[in-house]
């Protein structure tokens, strides 16, 4: 026990200052134990520490840890109140002695463990990194040679040799789990290995002349770019039957997922070429692409809009289809005519085509509906006013009982302008005429 602790317990009375002093001493013991644990953990894990030195190290550490726990418990019991009895003083004194004794034993076990490791490393060095065994056997019609190298450090065994017989000869090598063999006879040579590397010019005389030319053309190319392109599988290198098969799969409407899978597999046969800022590849599958400009088929991204020869998609205004040469315009969106007109318009159609393309009639819009039932009509146009203010009209086809089953064209205007309203608001002296319908032409006209 330290003199400081002995003095603290001497009078049997513990002041607050003495308790603080004891706490600082315990911190020192805790720090010592932390160093012990770090040293033990690293040393015990050493692969060259074996046998008795290793087991003695563990026993010494376990005993020291037990003594540490008992010492801390004894001090905490003695300092629980402001007095320390003779029994408590004796218990603390005993645990201090046990802790110091076992700490000394642990230090000795560390020295023994380090010496054991050094002895093991020295023995490996004395034995040498490798041991080489070899033998040569000569028999009638047979000569064999075998060489074995044993690496004690890396724990590997390498073997090689050759065997010559009247049937042929074999060269072989063995390292770990990898075996390679070359079997040679008067008719053939067989190479058996997980990887085969051929360095230098290789000639395949059994191939057809056209295939040899294809291979030689690739192997002898001096232009790296052309060589890279030759290494890809392009459409021109596929037979007509294969191209037809691929095209039929990719254009199939009822097997979309399968067609996409076929496209992926086809792309995997190609290659990706990256040269500076240029990327050439077959297929890109990604979640997001951010681009200021892009070309997608006949479409391009320009100034934040998707445009083609006759179609433009503007994020702020809408979708435009325009053939200015024929005077045909179709616009749908938030604003389809210039704001300077003072008119807000969501749909704008124009057809002024008189280019002589063979069409004798032009139309901005053609609407078709199905056959109406006895109770329901088929509406071409249904117009109403927002918030239910009443104005509107409906143009629809209705069946009204004709024997031939034909439908009738019906115009419904719930709140039409009256003649008095016309005089008050628009023209005080109107001229009224009847609208009549010509049954032969089906035209509606004004009767004068």
Mean pLDDT: 74
**Main β sheet profile:** 7 strands, antiparallel
Element-level helix/strand string: HHHHEEEEEEHHHHEEEEEEEEEEEEHEE
Q: What is the terminal separation in angstroms? A: 133 Å
Q: Helical region count?
A: 9
| Order of neighbouring strands in the sheet with most strands | 9-10-11-12-13-14-15
Helicity range of the residues? 25-40%
In percent terms, what proportion of residues is strand? 25-35%
Q: Count every beta strand, where a strand is a DSSP E run of 2 or more residues.
A: 20
Radius of gyration: 50 Å
Outline, from the CA principal axes? flat
Low-pLDDT parts are 223-228
Category by helix and strand content? alpha+beta
Structure description:
This protein is α+β, with helices and mostly antiparallel strands. Helices cover 35% and strands 25% of the residues. The protein has nine helices and 20 strands. The protein has helices spanning 3-10, 16-44, 51-78, 86-127, 209-219, 224-230, 240-250, 256-268, 419-425, and strands at 130-139, 142-151, 156-165, 168-175, 178-184, 189-192, 273-275, 278-280, 294-296, 299-302, 305-307, 311-314, 318-323, 328-333, 347-351, 378-384, 392-398, 408-412, 434-437, 444-447. Strands 9-10-11-12-13-14-15 form a seven-stranded antiparallel sheet, with no helix packed on it. Strands 1-2-3-4-5-6 form a six-stranded antiparallel sheet, with no helix packed on it. A three-stranded antiparallel sheet has the order 16-17-18, with no helix packed on it. Strand 10 (299-302) and strand 11 form a beta hairpin. Helix 2 runs antiparallel to helix 3 (51-78) and helix 3 (51-78) packs antiparallel against helix 4 (86-127). The protein is flat, with a radius of gyration of 50 Å. The N and C termini lie far apart (133 Å). Residues 223-228 have low confidence and may be disordered.
